[in-house]
Amino acid sequence: MAREVAAVAPAIVANPAEFDQLDSRVAFGRALGEIAENDSQVMAVVSDYGRRLALDALRSKLPGSVVQCGIAEQNQVEVASALANEGFHVFAPSYAPFITARVLDQVRVNLGMMESPVVLVGLGAGYHAGILGPSHMALEDLACMRSIPGLAVVTPATNTELACALAELARNPRPAYVRITQAPAGDRALPAGDFELGRCRVLADDAPGDKTDVAIAACGSITSRALTAAGLLRERGLSCRVVAVGTIKPLDQRVVELLACSRLAVTVEEHSVVGGLGGLLAEELLDRGAAPGLLRLGAPDRYPEADEQSRLLERAGLTPGGMATAILARLG
């Protein structure tokens, strides 16, 4: 999929390392602007939050392509659905908790039952907006969205993967939720590689085709920390496998196979330990009857106090050191 984006977003592909360092909101706007070069049907339906999304390039290329609904996310989904049903390629971005939990009935009816091909985009997911308090932390959005029949749930780990996902969803519109998280400054960059909806990506594997000590599945920008944690485990003599899960639904069954072939399966997500990637893979592994031990690392099942993202992640044990410590403790 990364190769295909070259025809849609050449400015992004020209320097993906630089693009991945952008604020994810700016990256979203730039990606839509590039997609609009080849797609005159692209539209963004925004709530008040749209002012922060760098949509000027889209507006200049396609006047009238940005519809502002004000602070009214439920109306935003209804308007987006109406436009999508008329053939436009519609993206509806907002704070992740507002475009999922706040509008769940509208999503259930319009994107689920009516199958309106709207792409919901949840910005600032996880703890990214944590300084604004728990009302702005999206820690339940995966649980909400993966329960809607027919809704694709996409969790890119980098801005470049985000651009790939948006380009594919513009080419082939469908009901979808794209969850955008952003790693704190200083986190390692992920290795470049192809991104394809519905496919996982193996970032590291010390025992290809064989059983490994630890297999880690991660989604979103915290994948970079999971990769670093694997390096700390290797220093302790453990073999590791790290899999980036870029699509939660439909799930690539290869993820299940890669985790099943391990002494301990671990899931890592900037989301509640309830109902997200960890819950999904627990279900899948049990369905297969091939479940190893499973450790779910994520946000605790409670609402935290307002704080900066880096400190919230640290308190949740979602640093590389915290992950490695939890895994070693589980292995005994």
TrEMBL record:
InterPro entries named in the record: PDH/Transketolase, THDP-binding, Transketo_C/PFOR_II, Transketolase-like_Pyr-bd, Transketolase_C
Domain spans labelled Transketolase-like pyrimidine-binding: 22-187
CDD domains according to UniProt: TPP_PYR_DXS_TK_like (cd07033)
Gene Ontology molecular-function annotations: magnesium ion binding
Protein name, entry field: Transketolase-like pyrimidine-binding domain-containing protein
